[in-house]
C-alpha cells in the first residue's frame, strides 16, 4: 500500500512543477511583448536623466572699471562749536538737539540791558571828547590862520585826538556796540544743531563756554588712507562709489590728494566730498569707498564668476545653446578683469550670448542642463 501512495505523490509533484513552469513562461512572453509594443524614445530617455540647474547671465559690451578700495571716516563739511563771546544771563535759547536751522537764524540771546547801558555811556563820553577836540582844533586853526599856514595838513591833529580823549572814546564806543551785538548769537551757516545742554532763561553763561555745535551735514567729506603704490593712480575729480553702514550707496568725488605719504603706514590721504542731502551719512561713520581709477573697454563683458579654471590653470567659460539647452566650454583668457567683471575678446563669444555664472563648476562639455536666467546683474 505504501509504494502505491509514494508513486501517486511523485506523479502529482511532477504535474504541479510543469504547471508552474508553463505559467512563468507565459508571463515572460507577455512582458516582452508589452515592452516591444511601447519602446521609450531617445527624447524620453534623455528627459529621464537628471539635468542640473545652472544659473546664466547675458553677456554685454559695456566697459569695466578698476577701483581702489578703502575705508574712511565721515566728517562734516563745516562744523563749529557755539561759544558766546561775552558773559551774561540767558534771555532766550533756541539751541535744541537735532534742530535744523538756516544761516543767520538766532540761536541764543542774552539780557541786553547792561550792554545797552554800556553803549549809551560810551556814546556820552564820545560826544564829550568830540567837543573837546573841536575846541582844541578851533584854537589851533586860529593860530595857523594868523601864521598863514591855512590849508595845510596839521601834523598835530592825531595828537589832539589822543590828548582830548577822542581816539579812546571812539574805540570804547565801537567795543560797546560790538559787545551788544554779541548778546545775540546767530547761526554762521545752515545746518543741524548738536548739544547736551538745556539753557533756560536766567542761566548765567561765561564767555567762551560751549553751548552746542553746529554741523553742516548737507555735504560731507570722507578721508581715505590709500597705499602709496595706488596713490599715483588717483586724481582730483575721480568718481567714488560710497557704501554706508546700512548698505545704501552714494556717489562722491575726489577733492584732494595729500602731497605727502605717511612714512610709518606707507599711505596717503585722499579726501572725497559727497552730497548728503538725504542725511544718510553722519559725521563719525565708517564707510566703504571704491575710487574709480581706470575705465577699460572690450568686445564682451561677462560676470567674473563665469570664468573657471581647469586643466592646471587654463581658464574657460560655459556658453549655452538655447535650442537644446546644451552647454559648450570655450577656453579663453580674459583681457581685463576686476572684482565683478571680465572683458573677453574671443571669436566664439559675443554680446547677447548666454553664459553660465553659478552652479557650473562641475559641468562637462555638451552637457544638457536646466537653465535659470539671472534677471539682474550688478553693474
From TrEMBL:
The keyword Cell cycle does not apply. It comes from Fodinibius salinus. Residues 112-139 form a coiled coil. Residues 1-32 form the signal peptide. PROSITE patterns: PROKAR_LIPOPROTEIN. Gene3D superfamilies: 2.40.30.170, 2.40.420.20, 2.40.50.100, Helix hairpin bin. The keyword Iron does not apply. This is RND family efflux transporter, MFP subunit.
Amino acid at each position: 500500500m505504501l509504494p502505491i501512495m509514494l508513486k501517486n505523490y511523485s506523479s502529482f509533484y511532477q504535474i504541479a512543477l510543469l504547471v508552474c513552469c508553463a505559467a512563468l513562461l507565459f508571463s515572460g512572453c507577455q512582458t516582452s511583448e508589452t515592452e516591444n509594443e511601447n519602446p521609450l524614445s531617445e527624447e524620453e530617455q534623455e528627459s529621464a536623466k537628471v539635468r542640473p540647474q545652472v544659473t546664466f547671465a547675458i553677456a554685454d559690451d559695456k566697459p569695466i572699471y578698476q577701483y581702489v578700495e578703502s575705508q574712511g571716516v565721515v566728517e562734516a563739511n563745516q562744523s563749529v562749536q557755539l561759544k558766546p563771546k561775552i558773559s551774561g544771563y540767558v534771555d532766550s535759547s533756541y539751541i535744541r538737539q537735532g534742530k535744523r536751522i538756516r544761516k543767520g537764524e538766532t540761536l541764543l540771546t542774552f539780557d541786553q540791558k547792561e550792554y545797552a547801558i554800556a553803549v549809551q555811556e560810551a556814546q556820552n563820553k564820545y560826544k564829550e571828547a568830540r567837543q573837546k577836540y573841536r575846541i582844541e582844533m578851533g584854537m589851533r586853526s586860529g593860530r595857523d590862520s594868523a601864521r598863514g599856514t591855512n590849508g595845510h595838513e596839521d601834523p598835530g591833529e592825531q595828537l589832539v585826538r589822543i590828548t582830548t580823549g577822542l581816539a579812546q572814546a571812539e574805540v570804547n564806543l565801537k567795543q560797546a556796540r560790538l559787545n551788544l551785538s554779541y548778546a545775540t548769537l546767530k547761526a554762521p551757516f545752515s545746518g543741524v544743531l548738536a548739544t547736551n545742554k538745556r539753557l533756560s532763561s536766567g542761566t548765567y553763561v561765561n564767555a567762551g563756554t560751549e553751548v552746542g555745535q553746529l554741523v553742516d551735514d548737507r555735504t560731507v567729506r570722507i578721508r581715505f588712507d590709500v597705499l602709496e603704490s595706488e596713490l599715483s593712480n588717483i586724481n582730483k575729480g575721480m568718481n567714488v562709489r560710497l557704501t554706508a553702514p546700512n548698505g545704501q550707496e552714494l556717489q562722491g568725488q575726489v577733492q584732494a590728494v595729500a602731497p605727502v605719504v605717511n612714512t610709518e603706514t606707507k599711505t596717503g590721504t585722499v579726501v572725497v566730498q559727497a552730497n548728503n542731502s538725504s542725511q544718510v551719512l553722519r559725521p563719525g561713520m565708517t564707510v566703504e569707498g571704491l575710487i574709480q581709477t581706470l575705465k577699460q573697454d572690450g568686445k564682451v563683458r561677462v560676470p567674473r564668476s563665469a570664468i573657471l579654471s581647469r586643466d592646471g590653470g587654463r581658464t574657460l567659460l560655459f556658453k549655452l545653446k538655447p535650442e537644446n539647452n546644451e552647454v559648450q566650454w570655450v577656453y579663453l583668457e580674459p583681457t581685463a578683469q576686476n572684482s565683478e567683471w571680465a572683458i573677453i575678446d574671443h571669436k566664439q563669444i559675443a554680446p547677447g550670448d548666454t553664459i553660465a555664472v553659478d552652479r557650473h563648476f562641475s559641468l562637462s562639455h555638451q552637457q544638457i542642463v536646466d537653465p535659470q536666467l539671472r534677471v539682474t546683474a550688478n553693474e
